[in-house]
Amino acid sequence: MGKYICCTGFLKSTWDQVCIAFWQRYPNPYSNHVLTEDIIFREVTPSNCLISRRLLTKTSRAPRWMERYLPKHMASSAYIIEDSIIDPQKRTMTTLTWNISHARLMSVEERCQYQINPEKGSWTEIKREAWISSSLYGLSRAIQ
């Protein structure tokens, strides 16, 4: 059993601006915890959707109580896979992100759906869902 979190929000920018910002977010001085961003795969489908897979390396320090369970090199950085699909006809962007580091201890998956807000066409609506789970006996609740 895991923990599920869901929320919806609004970005006061057009869908086009949000998509452009998504691809230009790294590197930037406000996200210096992201060390690398590597494109593993990218394809334009016959229906003109852009499908991408990226590998991100982050310096995300593990919580102090968890550091004793991790090898020293694993406590200071994390590897994350990010899949994205941009559909310019439907004007949607979907991202799915999950950790590959520490996966035996815990799994974190996030899915974001970006689309034009139907009430305010100049805003973008984002629906975020996250699943956090751990099968580590005795610590799964604390991790979640």
TrEMBL record:
Domain PRELI/MSF1: 2-144
InterPro entries per the UniProt record, alphabetical: PRELI/MSF1_dom, Slowmo/Ups
A Pfam family: PRELI
Superkingdom of the source species: Eukaryota
Protein name: PRELI domain-containing protein 1, mitochondrial
